[in-house]
Sequence to fold (264 residues):
Amino acid sequence: MYEFILSVMEEAARLMLSAHDIDAAVTVKPGDANFVTAYDVAVEDYLYRELGKRLPEAVFIGEESSENHTELLASSLALIIDPIDGTTNFIHNYRYSAISVGVCDHGRMAFGAVYNPYDCRLFHAEAGQGAYVRDTRTGRDLPIHVSARALHDSLAGFGTSPYYREELAEPTFRAVSSLFRMTRDVRRCGSAALDLCMVACGTLDVFIEYRLSPWDVAAGTLIVSEAGGLVTRMDGSPVTFDAPGSILAGSPLSHREVLDSGIL
Ligand code: IPD
Ligand code: CA
Ligand code: CA
Fold:
């Protein structure tokens, strides 16, 4: 079944790659700079239709859907989907955007996959089976693991919570200023789902963002933990997928150092 999900994601990515004249396809949702394109909607529709054929019992929790059954998470098989994570990058042709699909079985993540079709990297993990990256040009899987660097040697990623900028710009950039002093450097790449995968494969050592939605992080959270890392809220409490919240992800070493530093 999980191979089937990966193949549907690869097909859906063709819609992303076929994009042209994206500016004309943009509309703004209510809220701060919350953009959606016709492609976000088309990818989500495609995933719902194709995955729904094979998993008719599943409930869908998707960013662009009007029905979001978060109240059913604990009692069902749920597909948590971000059709395009990194929509602003997508609009600007930044080539760092991904399709994210998580399978949550009665409240527990069972499977997660994040696909960046621009570099053909398909990250995936099944609970208890480790995390992998597939090169979709060859179909080869390689195991991935978080880094072992100490924080002062690390590269830290962050997100700006752009849809809540009035409220969160101040704490975000205060924390980033501290992180910048504590690490080699910081990066803001523009897709939380991929940023988590960058932690999982040891490129980033730590990642923070003050508010993310369940579909931004469901798949990536499992991929990080299966790669040996930790993902929690910024106060160290567990991540749940029923509401937006903060994220602190990293190797066990960096996660601990950031949590203990008191910068968040
Ligand atoms: C956004 C991206 C971005 C993060 C935002 C998310 P979207 O998702 O993950 O990196 O900073 O908080 O909302 O809107 O592009 O799907
Ligand atoms: Ca997103
Ligand atoms: Ca999205």
